[in-house]
Write a structure and sequence with these properties.
The protein is 28% helix and 19% strand. By secondary structure, the protein is of the alpha/beta class.
Length: 744
């Protein structure tokens, strides 16, 4: 190590022109990071400090070349390391050695309800990021699922802040164990893509604190995340990328965040706010409307936190301590990553990482429905229940062969390989598997003539599909959404809750001639399922990455027993969703402002409180085996509630069950908006046939049952009676217990 450091110093002297008297003391790795930061700051010029605060490339920010301090290379995530991009333009650089493993979407990861899977995910993607020389991975995304029309929900972890908090922390720890910083995003309230650049969010302080901030808080206080990205939208009139309340008062002062706040690309809009409101690194700025600079005229030194910032510092109009604080945070990130004393080389082990993808996919796929086959008198899944050596399978749908790692915006990936559902089924069953498109994705813009041609082609494909479906033993319909614009895609929201491209009509047509149909939905959002009564089996299969087809086939065949649970509710109709119950002002807003009128009642909280059943509830997910709950108990020790329940596998095969703990206040203060119940714990347990296990939870009422009192501006716990719900989903409650919290 000493020899290596000497060589590095000699290299710096010869290549970077560092004079001997300028050799930085912070090369002494025996000193802690803060001492090295202090020493580096004492040696830096004002211009060098400012240079740390803005990008110098599309995905690169400055170090201090004169002192041998490297900069930061960043990459989009959070599902894989993005292909190399041009220095300044939004296009791929055209490398041949920048492919990656595509990991399942974060909705799939959340659907595992398994923190061990989150850690594996983070470790694997962190290894690939380190191997590719990346210092900051832009993820995970932890914004709350508020509406199923949000085009970016597939990048997030569902509708519940507790689930998101628990699942993001291991991901962050796994990535950062490789010397690569996570950049948790988008802080905060990035809950729609429509008008995302400018939409102003008006939300109650209670909802902000209880729903939209907890996962970010967990990322900081428990995950120890080193970087946070501001979002495009505004909160109460100020853009979130330089919002004093969010960044200074809450993130840095209340939560003690000592890392870097980075802007999203082109999310910086005001010089004064960028300087004083908590932004540390300005990324992606490509124009300055206030100065009339755009296009080829714009250079990185025209960023808000560049030349203009420097001039104000030189004139004394801004105190040097302001830039010192920003530079200190950036140096801390550099010393944790690109200039860390521990050199993390990472690895690009496609085989090992593909195995992680397959495992996570198998645990995240949700079996929504599994009824008896009309022909075989057993549940349609798994195929091993009834399939013979002569049985035939008709695979239908564009998503059966589509590369779903492409498009979608910043999460697009250049993958080393991607196995489709059709390919995996053919590998499993050979020539017994037939394929037909069934439907064609409709181009975004079409002339009247082109539309007529599309409709004619679509009708012909549908007729051919129905004809083939008559002769197959089972039909596997692989549809859902895709990652084109106005589907699951950055910068656009969906235009409809229904399945696109006439898929619902096709499903009904197939079911009329062959009732044995399995619907495999590839998507990151809920869709309307008024066709569900026509289909015995439905899988919510997400976007599964490199091993998509293999993971789906593992479930279909029965090689893997499904154990995924929904991280969000699936309403019967769009109007059953809270955000769509108050008209345009609640979603998508009037073009300028959107008002979160539902407050804290998002997702299952809304369904519970308004007695509106969901088609598939939050936490729902079936198995090929069955589980019995019994002997629920509660006791108190040192002011904490000890809750336990016995869970037994009463079926004939091994499986995993997610035991979910919800708690609700009985007769709450009517002045305080409260949900009927809220998720407060979960555990995933593996049980062999006949095996039992006691699942235990510990609840600290003083922290776990708090609500935010807007009038007092603080967190409080309400005394009185509480009901404890233990179940297999938010709607499938197997046991209830009563508890009382005395007044202080």
């Amino acid at each position: 190590m000493k020899r290596l450091n000497i060589l590095m110093i000699l290299f710096a002297i010869s290549v970077l022109g560092i004079r001997a008297q300028e050799l930085p003391v912070y090369q002494d790795l025996s000193k802690d990071i803060e001492a090295r930061i202090d020493d580096a700051l004492s040696r830096m010029t004002l211009a060098e400090k400012v240079a740390l605060c803005h990008a110098q490339g599309k995905f690169y920010s400055n170090g201090v070349p004169r002192l041998g301090i490297p900069g930061l290379w960043m990459s989009d995530g959070p599902h894989g390391v993005r292909a190399e991009m041009d220095w300044k333009e939004w296009r791929q650089a055209g490398w041949e050695i920048d492919s990656c493993t595509a990991f399942p979407s974060l909705t799939c990861l959340a659907a595992t309800w398994n923190e061990e899977m989150s850690l594996k995910y983070g470790q694997a993607i962190g290894e690939e990021a380190a191997y590719r020389g990346k210092h900051v991975l832009l993820g995970p995304g932890v914004n709350i699922y508020r509406t199923p029309l949000n085009g970016r929900n597939f990048e997030y972890m569902g509708e519940d802040p507790f689930l998101s908090s628990r699942m993001c922390v291991p991901y962050i720890k796994g990535v950062q164990s490789n010397g690569v910083s996570c950049c948790v995003k988008h802080f905060a309230l990035n809950n729609q893509e429509r008008n995302r650049w400018s939409i102003n969010v008006e939300v109650s302080e209670q909802a902000l604190r209880q729903l939209y901030l907890p996962a970010f808080k967990a990322a900081v206080e428990e995950g120890g995340v080193w970087c946070v990205m501001g979002s495009y939208n505004k909160l109460r009139g100020t853009h979130c990328s330089h919002n004093d309340y969010l960044l200074n008062q809450i993130l840095k002062n209340e939560w003690g965040f000592n890392g870097v706040v980075m802007s999203d690309w082109d999310a910086t809009h005001d010089l004064h706010q960028a300087i004083f409101n908590g932004l540390d690194i300005e990324m992606g700025t490509s124009q300055r409307p206030d100065k009339g600079i755009k296009g080829d005229q714009f250079t990185f030194n025209e960023s808000y936190l560049a030349n203009d910032f420097l001039r104000l510092l030189e004139k004394g109009e801004v105190a040097e301590e302001v830039v010192n604080e920003k530079a200190r945070r950036v140096l801390r990130l550099i010393f944790r990553t690109s200039f860390s004393p521990v050199r993390h080389t990472g690895n690009m082990d496609y085989a090992a990482h593909s195995a992680v993808c397959r495992e996570i996919g198998g645990e995240g796929i949700v079996l929504l429905q599994n009824e008896k086959s009309q022909d075989f008198k057993t549940p349609l899944l798994p195929f091993s229940n009834w399939m013979t050596a002569e049985s035939t399978i008709l695979v239908v749908g564009d998503n059966a062969t589509r590369r779903l790692t492409e498009n979608g915006g910043s999460s697009e990936l250049k993958v080393q390989h991607e196995t489709s559902v059709y390919e995996a089924l053919q590998r499993e069953y050979g020539e017994r598997v037939m394929l037909v498109d069934g439907y064609s994705p409709m181009p975004e813009r079409m002339s009247a003539e082109e539309r007529e041609q599309w409709e004619s082609t679509d009708a012909a494909k549908r007729a051919q599909t129905v004809l083939l479906a008559r002769t197959a033993d089972v039909v596997v319909f692989v549809g859902g959404l895709n990652k084109e614009r106005f589907q699951d895609c950055e910068d656009t929201d969906r235009k409809q809750y229904e399945l696109p491209y006439n898929q619902a009509e096709l499903i009904r047509d197939i079911a009329e001639v062959n009732p044995d149909i399995v619907c495999v939905l590839m998507s990151g959002n809920a869709v309307q399922m008024d066709w569900a009564d026509h289909t015995p089996a439905i899988l919510q299969a997400w976007y599964l990455g490199s091993e998509a087809g293999t993971a789906v086939t593992d479930i279909l065949t029965g090689r893997v027993n499904p154990s995924g649970k929904m991280p969000f509710s699936i309403p019967f109709k769009l109007e059953d969703c809270a955000a769509h119950s108050f008209g345009q002002q609640a979603y998508p807003g009037d073009g300028k402002t959107v008002n979160y009128m539902e407050g804290v009642l998002v997702g299952y909280r809304w369904h519970d409180s308004k007695d509106i059943p969901a088609r598939f509830a939050f936490g729902h997910g079936l198995s090929y085996t069955t589980f019995d709950y019994s002997k629920a108990r509660i006791s108190e020790l040192d002011g904490k509630w000890r809750i336990s329940v016995n869970v037994k596998n009463t079926g004939s095969i091994a499986g995993k069950e997610v035991v979910q703990l919800y708690i609700g206040k009985d007769n709450p203060d009517p002045r305080i908006p409260r949900a009927k119940k809220e998720l407060k714990g979960f555990q995933k347990v593996y049980l062999r046939p006949g095996e039992s296990q006691t699942v235990e939870f510990t609840v600290d009422p003083s922290t776990d049952l708090r609500y935010y009192d807007e009038a007092a501006g603080e967190w409080r716990t309400e005394s009185g009676k509480y009901t404890i719900y233990i179940g297999s989903s938010s709607a499938d409650i197997r046991a209830r217990l009563n508890a009382k919290l005395p007044a202080e």
